[in-house]
Please model this.
Amino acid sequence: MLSELFLYRFSGWLLTAVWLFLSFQALRRRGAWNGKYRYFLVFLLSISLIELLAAITAPLLSNNLFLDYPYITIEFVMLGLFLARIIDIGFITRLVNIASVLFVIFQIANAFWLQGLESYNSYGEYVNNAYLFMLSVWALTVLYRQNLGRSILAVRDAWFVLGILGIYLLVAVIDFLYGMALPYQNDHFLYVVLISGNFLKSGLLMLYYKGIRMMPPSR
Model:
């Protein structure tokens, strides 16, 4: 059990370190984050800060699940706006703008009147995963059609979209497995799910790094 707890904490620290590394790399190219890329930069820096706060508060507080609310809201809004600009269809952009406002209202209601700040924000998580998965599939399809005859891996935006698609598909699978295992109170299996999720997510974040590397350097 102690080794599992250590691995869980280590995998969490690794994930936080990867987020901070990505933010540092992005800021080295801060002059390149214009247009739709501003949304991705805000997402990246904000999530890195929340991950750092989560790592700091985890041993100090009995419950830091309240951090899920800004975390998930930022993902939904910023990545949704980023993907909408890639899809670049007027009514989709308007729908994403409306969905962003409605989701913020929903998250506030969920935090204070539904699940509460001290409970796992499963409602927001499920909606966020499904929303970003669908948008990222659409965005990837658009990029593929725009680059026929060219490797999709040579397209900068494709790395960001593949990262979003892979990460939120992984999160959905981890949430499903965790939810299935929770009633059985099998700590070993729960640790395996959470540790594996952290390591896999750390690896998938490198897709973002590839996209960041393809951004022009600041002068």
Summary: Helices lie at 2-27, 37-57, 68-87, 90-112, 122-146, 156-181, 187-213.
